[in-house]
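Late entry, evening session. Most of the bench is empty. Finally got around to the prediction I had been postponing all week. Sequence below, unchanged from the version circulated by S.P.
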Amino acid sequence: MSTGPADSSWQFVTNHTQVLLCIARDPDIRVRDIADAVGVTLGSAQRIIADLVDAGYVQRERQGRRNRYLINRDAPMLRHAAQEGHDIGGLLDLLRLAESD
């Protein structure tokens, strides 16, 4: 029987949300550092970022040889009916509150 979060086979926060949090903490973060922080491969991190860009949650700006990421905090969370009326900024605020506890 599972006795704690470490014993679980599922994640409370998806990899997409974890990538979004990494970008929120550091808009100049490298993809390799995102991959390491989230625990995914470099290719997976690139695909997740592409998903977030394609969905309009993140904008990617080229700055020299690096990328800078901007989060569209007003983007609505429309992946599920229960998320209607909520935006990405609210999600980030909620998760940041949890981090400060």
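Two things to note before I forget:
Strands lie at 58-63, 66-71.
The chain has a mean pLDDT of 83.
Will write this up properly tomorrow.
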